């Protein structure tokens, strides 16, 4: 299963690679990383769209934020699953994410055991 993580903080990449080390090694999951919403959209528009199954996007990013990205993804690629990740558990962002079609909403610090369960639930339903 191919998952794209969109976050402007580069250290997120090593964190995900560490937390999903076994799943990556077993070939169950492949991660792609984008440091901006624009880079994520560019990838989706130029690469094989069907290859990415899930997008995990931070909300607070410079330029285009994660909620704007979510809205565009759901318009252009309605079958893609998108989970929003935020350090701020406020109702306004949650409601906006749900209104824009988010498939999940995760508050930092990320509970990686829970996230793995959600990812593999999507993977099972996708296959």
Can you put this structure into words, describing what you see?
This protein has 127 residues and is α/β, with parallel strands linked by helices. It has six helices and five strands. The model has no long low-confidence stretch (mean pLDDT 93).
Compute the number of structural domains.
1
Helical content band: 40-55%
**What general outline do the C-alpha atoms trace?**
globular
CATH level-4 homologous superfamily: Response regulator
Largest sheet descriptor:
5 strands, parallel
User: Strand order, biggest sheet?
Assistant: 2-1-3-4-5
Which SSEs are present, and which pair or pack?
Layout: E1 2-6, H1 11-19, H2 21-25, E2 30-34, H3 37-46, E3 52-58, H4 66-76, E4 81-86, H5 91-99, E5 104-107, H6 112-126
Parallel strand pairs: 1-2, 1-3, 3-4, 4-5
